[in-house]
């Protein structure tokens, strides 16, 4: 039995010990931006508890199966892009004939996911709901169906929390690239500077106001919002676009792109609301990200890069990534077998958990509305492990000691610390960092409940022996049960 060479995790942020004897975790303190305050920790408790959600990118782009940026990447003009909504497009037709959101929700539950988030409208501007805006392009027009309503009903029927993705930009509007009408940004569609783009951009903004109010007032309680596309002309940051979108609490009477009175929403005093004002009016407890220009209740870490670094304690971070190639259905990735395997799903999730993060994992249903079998199988297999490890996943907080990249991390709940020994960790002995701690009552392997021998050294290091790494090689979990709570109340 070799000693663990990776037991040099650092105390959290060097902020000293709390009254439990463990390193103190620097807290998240809600802030205010553009007149809107972030949700409190109590309001975000469900998201921190649930840890794992399903992202779903589904729209017209599922027909051709070449990803959600198809319209942009292949420079397909709006009138030509519409064909994917109709049978004339043949094998590239977005048929939606086997759309079954309850099956999606059941798969999410089998995978250990607690909430779902569907693309109600992506950058192509196609709405999966019955938008009230006259210029909108919707599934009600093309399929005589409100897919968002079917989805939200299915989530609730299956006991899964409801999330909505909405993209602020729409490639259907040339004005997106030229909001002032004086400086058209580079784009694949051949649009040039045109004074008429100023009004076109205003119409794009107006549709957003109509859609956001509709989505947040017509589909019952919404738990989670994922904004996207707040940056203008695909340049700069989302915050840079806030002056145009009016992302905060109220509209500015002097804004150069005014929203028509019909599409405005108001507070009790009659004052016209900005985007986040509308959100807080209709869904005061919904958690949102920062991609509409406001700072967000939670932050994003997007993409497949490994989750590394310290515990994220001063803000709630959500890792979002996809299972197979592009975010939308990617036929090439699926047929080529490029699907995230179960062990990788587990590794990403555990690396989020020990850093006090949550994870939103994407699937791209095909043109019929079915999640590819290879993706479903991978999620189901990961879910079998996650259910067994649930005690060390759900309702935990990252820490109290810092993780060691690719090797080791910790999370805690109540009076128990869970040590996650990943594939990169060598040996069958675990050593905790030195320091004062409450008395350790017992150490056990999570999956077998086998009690493990341990000793406490004079410097406070706890050394646990005879850990069986073969029971769960992807992540061996040891539960350390102390006589007192881990976190100060």
Automatic annotation (TrEMBL):
SUPFAM superfamilies: (Trans)glycosidases. It is an enzyme of class 3 (hydrolase). It holds the Pfam family Alpha_L_fucos. Signal peptide: none annotated. Residues 42-391 form the Glycoside hydrolase family 29 N-terminal domain. Its EC number is 3.2.1.51. GO terms for molecular function: alpha-L-fucosidase activity. It comes from the Bacteria. Keywords: Glycosidase, Hydrolase, Signal. The keyword Electron transport does not apply. GO terms for biological process: fucose metabolic process; glycoside catabolic process. One of its GO terms (cellular component) is lysosome. InterPro entries: GH (IPR017853), Glyco_hydro_29 (IPR000933), Glyco_hydro_29_N (IPR057739). Belongs to the glycosyl hydrolase 29 family. This is alpha-L-fucosidase. It comes from Fimbriimonas ginsengisoli Gsoil 348. The lineage of its organism: Bacteria, Bacillati, Armatimonadota, Fimbriimonadia, Fimbriimonadales.
């Amino acid at each position: 039995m070799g000693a663990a060479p990776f037991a040099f995790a650092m105390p959290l942020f060097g902020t000293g010990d709390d009254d439990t004897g463990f390193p103190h975790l620097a807290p998240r303190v809600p802030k205010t931006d553009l007149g809107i305050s972030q949700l409190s920790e109590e309001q975000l408790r469900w998201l921190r508890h649930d840890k794992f959600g399903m992202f779903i990118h589904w729209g017209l782009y599922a027909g051709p199966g070449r990803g959600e940026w198809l319209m942009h990447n292949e420079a397909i003009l709006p009138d030509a892009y519409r064909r994917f909504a109709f049978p004339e497009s043949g094998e590239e037709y977005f048929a939606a004939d086997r759309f079954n959101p309850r099956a999606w929700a059941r798969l999410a539950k089998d995978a250990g996911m607690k909430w779902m988030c569907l693309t109600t409208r992506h950058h192509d501007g196609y709405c999966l709901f019955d938008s009230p805006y006259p210029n909108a392009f919707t599934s009600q027009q093309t399929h005589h169906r409100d897919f968002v309503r079917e989805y939200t009903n299915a989530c609730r029927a299956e006991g899964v929390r409801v999330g909505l993705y909405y993209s602020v930009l729409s490639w259907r509007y040339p004005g997106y690239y030229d909001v002032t009408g004086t400086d058209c940004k580079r784009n694949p569609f051949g649009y040039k500077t045109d004074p008429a783009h100023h009004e076109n951009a205003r119409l794009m903004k107006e549709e957003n106001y109509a859609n956001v109010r509709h989505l947040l007032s017509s589909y019952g309680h919404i738990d989670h919002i994922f904004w996207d596309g707040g940056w203008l002309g695909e340049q700069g940051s989302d915050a840079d676009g806030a002056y145009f979108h009016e992302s905060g609490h109220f509209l500015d009477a002097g804004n150069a792109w005014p929203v028509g009175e019909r599409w405005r929403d108001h507070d009790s005093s009659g004052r016209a609301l900005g985007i986040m004002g509308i959100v807080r009016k209709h869904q005061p407890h919904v958690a949102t990200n920062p991609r509409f220009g406001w700072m967000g209740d939670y932050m994003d870490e997007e993409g497949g890069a490994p989750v590394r670094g310290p515990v994220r304690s001063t803000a709630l971070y959500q890792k979002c990534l996809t299972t197979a190639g592009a975010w939308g259905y990617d036929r090439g990735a699926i047929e080529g077998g490029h699907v995230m395997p179960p062990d990788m799903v587990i590794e990403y999730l555990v690396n989020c958990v020990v850093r006090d993060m949550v994870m939103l994992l994407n699937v791209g249903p095909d043109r019929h509305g079915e999640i590819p079998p290879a993706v479903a199988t991978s999620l189901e297999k990961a879910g079998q492990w996650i259910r067994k490890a649930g005690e060390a996943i759900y309702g935990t907080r990252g820490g109290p000691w810092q993780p060691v990249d690719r090797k080791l991390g910790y999370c805690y709940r109540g009076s128990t610390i869970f040590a996650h020994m990943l594939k990169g960790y060598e040996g069958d002995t675990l050593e905790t960092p030195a320091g004062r701690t409450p008395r350790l009552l017992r150490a056990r392997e999570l999956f077998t409940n086998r009690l493990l021998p341990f000793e406490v050294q004079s410097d406070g290091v706890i050394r646990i022996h005879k850990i069986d790494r073969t029971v769960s090689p992807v992540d061996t979990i040891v539960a350390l049960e102390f006589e007192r709570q881990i976190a100060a109340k």
